[in-house]
Amino acid sequence: MTPETLRTLLGGVPENGWFAEAEARVRADPDAIGQLFARAGRMLGRRPLPDHPSWTAGQAGRVLLLLALTGEPLEGRAPEGAASTVTVRGRVAELYWRGDPAERLAVLHALEHLGLGEAGVPLIEDALRTNDKRLVAAALGPCAALLDDAVWRQGVVKCVFMEVPLSVVDRLGERADQPLAEMLGGLARERAAAGRRMPGDALALLNRQSLAKGWKAKEG
Amino acid sequence: MRVFDPHIHMTSRTTDDYRRMAAAGVRSVVEPAFWLGQPRTNPGSFGDYFDSLLGWEPYRASQYGVRHHATLALNPKEANDPRCKGVLDLLPRYLEKDGVVAVGEIGYDSMTPAEDEAFAAQLDLAREFGLPALVHTPHRDKAAGTRRTLDVVAASGIEPGRVAVDHLNEVTVAVVKDSGCWTGFSIYPETKMSPPRMVAILQEYGIERVLVNSAADWGHSDPLLTVATGEAMLDAGFSADDVDKVLWRNPIEFYAQSGRLDLSELPEPEATFAGSSVKRGGS
């Protein structure tokens, strides 16, 4: 979800005035974000948005408040290595570690736009260690570009265990590789031995990877 | 029968309990922060506990269709350990969270000066954050402890209607009712209060500003005693609407004063209690 889309979504909710004021306060005083970030959920609304049921106005507002920390809300990127980014990195990490699940989710959603680089990795890895499907799914969204392949593969296989649909995984087709196929193959054999099924999307991915391997072998 | 358990320590319960509770009609719970049996020795330990009450536990509850909210505080027993005093500095950050619907459990355990201080400070936090307060009354010297509790509540300036005084019995109910605070009763298998005794109290004192909970925790307790109390009420001639008021609408009315109670995934309550605040943030 782009910041522009989030802003459009928020423009349609009656509490938009609260958000405009909160955003201005964060820009003027970044320390204000602590309370406003927590409060945004109930102030802006915690119900799914009609056209975007996986989002709430509160979550959209939280992501935009995080982007307000960078001072460049739409572009959202402080130059790599700039002094201001150090502060933003610390603040975002603090909001994650002190956040409830919804707040942590907002941080994960904002990461792709914040340009924090490696500083985002411990947060994403933490989310992947939880057993909360929402956090695991968000950790495998666009922010997962920061993860190394081994961690990313573990995350994908974890989705299969947790019955999180693989459609949540960003760039799955592009990033799925032979080691992932081997992990899924191993899981499929374990499941077969236990008389249990693999989810359909995991089987489909496994089949695609096996076919791709077959083609490569043929071409080779 | 639909049931809102306004005081239950689900962290100590199993998923079997969630399953049985949901099947029996328990749709929503509030979990107050309390003592875990093993004393904690530093504020960080409380931070992790608070995270769990706002994170993992609501998620676990949601798997069984049960709504979970929390009340947070430094409990009276651990308020006596100076190593835990820093919890009071940690609280402002947590009391802003969406899932927090009151400050609690606060109050007295042994009525020490340290408990006085933590109790008063946390009533101030309740006012500052616009939250109701859930107040535990002591097991020992309960009548004196309850009177002293009401004095501290009055001195703090918090509205009595925003305070629930819990674990009451036949001896302590009248004085709390007269104060304008909510009266809370914990139904236990053997101690505190039983379903038949609860019914007798409801017959004598009425069903306004009453909260009935199981207070089930890591000790000998039963999360279905709220439901058993509802059944005992029906057997004694109370109407289904009376039961609904005591076990569902009353706890919602009390905690909705936080403006944060979110029952959006649950069927809309039929009655017109506390109107806007119940739905606030969800609309």
TrEMBL record, chain A:
<protein>
    <recommendedName>
        <fullName>Ubiquinone biosynthesis protein COQ9</fullName>
    </recommendedName>
</protein>
<dbReference type="InterPro" id="IPR047715">
    <property type="entry name" value="EboA_dom"/>
</dbReference>
UniProtKB/TrEMBL annotation, chain B:
<dbReference type="Pfam" id="PF01026">
    <property type="entry name" value="TatD_DNase"/>
</dbReference>
<dbReference type="InterPro" id="IPR001130">
    <property type="entry name" value="TatD-like"/>
</dbReference>
<dbReference type="GO" id="GO:0016787">
    <property type="term" value="F:hydrolase activity"/>
</dbReference>
<keyword id="KW-0378">Hydrolase</keyword>
<dbReference type="InterPro" id="IPR012022">
    <property type="entry name" value="UCP005295"/>
</dbReference>
<protein>
    <submittedName>
        <fullName>TatD family hydrolase</fullName>
    </submittedName>
</protein>
<comment type="similarity">
    <text>Belongs to the metallo-dependent hydrolases superfamily.</text>
</comment>
<keyword id="KW-0479">Metal-binding</keyword>
<dbReference type="InterPro" id="IPR032466">
    <property type="entry name" value="Metal_Hydrolase"/>
</dbReference>
